[in-house]
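input
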Amino acid sequence: MAIDYHKLKNWAFPDRVQTYTAKDCMLYALGLGIGADPLDASQLRFVFEKDLQPLPTMGVVLASPGFWIQDPAVGIDWKAVLHGEQRLTIHRPLRTSGTLVGKMKIDEIIDKGPGKGALMYAHRDIYDQENGAAVCSVSATWVCRGEGGFGGPSRPTPAPHELPVRAPDLSCDLPTLRQAALIYRLSGDYNPLHADPSVAAAAGFDRPILHGLCTYGVAGYAILKSLCGSNPERLRTLDGRFTVFFFSGETMRTEIWNEGAGRASFRSRVVGRDVVVLSNGVAEFVA
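output
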């Protein structure tokens, strides 16, 4: 089934209203592997109700339309879709509980040509239901493998952020749990690719892979820990491009270039396999 460009671009997403609690904040952090060191007070603040603080990257999983791309009416083979890029802009820190409203829209679908893929760009703005204040904006790019040639626009895509050519200023190693994907999926992404070995095999993987947004969250925590003193109120934006798959239980090394004036470039690699899993990253923060 070929992509129906006009139908997909104008896909009507109903507003997504979600109430979350302190328990959801702690569960999200545990999915990233936070709290692995029970004596680390800087981690405990994200997984224990005393002085609890939500991680800023939790915004990417809140007020989401869910696994909508699995709907046959969308016209895309969801098993062949990969998460390409992710950006988060934080307008105000998350509270430990509340009700949010998410408004999502497809911005564009780029046709890469017959025998190739398609790139789908979308964004979601999230508001506090109580006062209407903007909380965060979430933008994503999805790579729809094999979906090219549907007659859509084929204009050039935005160039990724360029990393400095010098050596990184610092790095941060963070291990993930072997059951990370099974915990993280409880925060809302129930794609079976991350839990069911048969679905993973059908997609070309020898075992379930970790959610791209989970690896993104681990990288975000590395930035928070390394540049923001683990203070969620200091992170403003986080932007990165996914490059290869990541397995639960692997260790991520985030390499950081502090460019001054509250801006840093970064990339994250799998320590054991020495491959880059998240690249062309850029973060903005309160210095």
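quick obs: The domain at 5-285 is CATH 3.10.129.10 (Thiol Ester Dehydrase; Chain A).
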